[in-house]
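pasting for the record
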Amino acid sequence: MKWACDVSRRRRKRASFACSLFCLALVLSSPAWSQVSGPKVPSATTKGETAAEVPKDTLGRETPRGTVLGFLGAARKGDAQIAALYLNTPLRGTSAETLARQLAVVLDRGLPPRLNQLSDKPEGSLPDQLNPDEDIVGTISTANGDVDILLEHVDRGGAGRVWLFSQKTLNSIPSAFQQLNTPPVEAFLPRFNDHPSTFERK
């Protein structure tokens, strides 16, 4: 009789243990447990996929030096349509192309060579902390005063930030072009030293 009681007690213990294991398995596999187990950490692949990369400018306008060299290169090839893309101007079409040609003449005839001194950094040379989005290429002397050739850092939205010839500078280019492109009066008049005067002939 005692042996039968011991067997029955062992069976109850085994049944209780099996029931506990079953309940634990249910808890571990439940959605509630997965929610309290901690936030999911995004994988490196997910981070790489979501990181937005700024597209590289195909015209090389990411630095002041790239803008000046790109503009001069297009101007030398006679491609005014491409050269106009380096200008921060509301003008379009032939008006923008004409302004680009005028700027090329002004730079060629009045700007001292200093391409090696132009910044090759996306942030520019930052000479003026009050105007960090401007970079100076040089200064041209005209009859109406000095004209600073400035570049400005312009945000083009999805295309990123690029350096363009400043609108402030472009406003002075037509006048400077007229002055620099007009031959001096002496070119149309005979030089007195080349021809004897009427008094000398006598």
